[in-house]
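#lab-general

N.A. 3:47 PM
ok so I finally got the sequence cleaned up, no stray characters, all 103 residues accounted for. can someone with queue access submit it? mine expired

B.Y. 3:52 PM
send it over

N.A. 3:53 PM
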Amino acid sequence: MILAKIFKTNNEIISFNISGHAESNKFGEDLVCAAVTGIINGALNALDLKFGNNLELIVKKNEIVINVKENNNLIQELLEFLMIQLETISIQYPKNFKIEGMI
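B.Y. 4:20 PM
back already:
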């Protein structure tokens, strides 16, 4: 199962962690994994390009972490947009993807 954890302070996202494997199909044919990976990679690229100095982005083999170092409204909007996209996948595939601390 893929697990995403959202951490908030004062109703603002301050940290996001995602890890695990969907295991909805064999390697190379896992649609849940492909969907989550596409959403996360697109978000990481945009966040790094636009707000690289405001965020700490950690990418490991089986874990991705986003820590907000210096917050602003646009960062929050983009992180909420990311969470909404991921929530769509978790609703469709609850056995393979779970979100804790959702908006």
